[in-house]
Amino acid sequence: MTAQYPVLAASVLALAVSSALAQPGERAEFDEFNPIVEINASDGDVGFHVILDGEAWEIAKLYNPDNKQILRARSKKELSEQGVTEVFFESAEPPCWFDDEDPDADPEDVVTVADFIERFAAGTYRAAGRTIEGDQLQARAELTHNLPAAPEVFVDTMGNRVELSWNAGDDLGECEYPDSLPDPAGVEVVRWEVVVEVNEDELPGGELPDGVPFGKFSVHLPTDSTHVVVPPEFIDAYLAAGVNQFKLEVGAMEESGNQTFTEAEFEVGLE
Description:
By secondary structure, this protein is mostly beta strands. The protein has helices at residues 4-22, 77-82, 113-119, 232-239; strands at 27-29, 32-40, 45-63, 69-74, 84-90, 123-131, 136-143, 152-158, 161-167, 191-198, 216-222, 227-230, 245-253, 259-267. The strands form 2 sheets. Strands 1, 2, 3, 4, 5, 6, 7, 10, 11, 13 and 14 form an 11-stranded mixed beta sheet that branches. A 3-stranded antiparallel beta sheet has the order 8-9-12. The protein is globular, with a radius of gyration of 26 Å.
């Protein structure tokens, strides 16, 4: 009997070594993982957006609340050696309403908010991945159907001075919300986002003149700030090139990151 103990000990040791080698790498959390709903209340469209950020990875997967894989991303060749850290993607943003005045509109293309929330269920979404060193990455985040109301936007211009202001809205603009959702007017806004840029669609040829770079003025503001003046230097850079057509977005963001934008267009005077 005593002669069997060393054999047994050796077998146990071999099994332990084998098990250790079979274990996956270290586990860590993605630095950021956030799935959200974004609505353009002016154009009337709705989309699913995700930001995923973490240690250099080569594979990332996304799972819905039913634990079904809905996205798989993998780097190859030199990118897999370098690693990916941050990825932001937007789904297609189909119209949430049928515009019967648009000759190109097709009712088959419409995805209402009711359709969208059935497609993208509220609940826990999961991200999983593997770093370029072989370690495992993971994260969980909640997608909600709390959709903030579209802001009501006002624009006041005088020369190169552009003053923007807005109020909290009470609906989703062109996107009708179903009764099953919280009333957008009651969804708390945690910050505002303002973006101003040249309206290239209104320029000759649909593009900026040669030598004029494209730029944006963008700012995030706390909820008690509903007014901003666009820096005159931003406007002057385009006025000097004869460009005076601009567009803006004001977005309302709720706690989970869901956001609803209102768009507007404006022009400033040319001397």
